[in-house]
Design a protein that fits this description.
Helices cover about 0% and strands about 50% of the residues. It is built from no helices and eleven strands. The protein has strands at about 5, 10-15, 20-25, 35-40, 45-50, 60, 70-75, 80-85, 90-100, 115, 120-124. Strands 2, 4, 5, 6, 9, 10 and 11 form a seven-stranded mixed sheet that branches. It starts with a strand and ends with a strand.
């Protein structure tokens, strides 16, 4: 059974930074793509960034490009989301997801496993 556990959320002022972590367990993830998604109250889930597990190819939403960086440490089975220049509109619950395909995507319905989420709150 695949398990994804996020951590690193919290409260930060606008302009600040946070780094989210997602530890994956239960499978060999070399053929999986990983993604970060977020959902704010009253809004639809949004794809933030995605990465191939081993190849390092990345995709970003237009709203996060240039501010967020997704990366992975295959030895630690961990995916990171470094978030810089945070804005109040980045406030949301952030979810890590795994897809049983090497191709990363920002479409949530294409992911098979999800973490429980971590809250990120950016104050103005």
């Amino acid at each position: 059974q695949v398990q994804l556990v996020e951590s690193g959320g919290g409260l930060v002022q606008a302009g600040g930074s946070l780094r989210l972590s997602c530890v994956a367990s239960g499978r060999t993830f070399s053929s999986y793509a990983m993604g970060w998604f977020r959902q704010a109250p009253g809004k639809e889930r949004e794809g933030v960034a995605a990465i191939t597990w081993s190849g390092g190819t990345t995709f970003y939403a237009d709203s996060t490009k240039g501010r967020f960086t997704i990366s992975r440490d295959t030895a630690k089975n961990t995916v990171y989301l470094q978030m810089n220049s945070l804005k109040p509109e980045d406030t949301a619950v952030y979810y890590c997801a795994a897809r049983t395909s090497r191709l990363p995507t920002l479409r949530g319905f294409e992911y098979d496993y999800w973490g429980q989420g971590t809250q990120v709150t950016v104050s103005s």
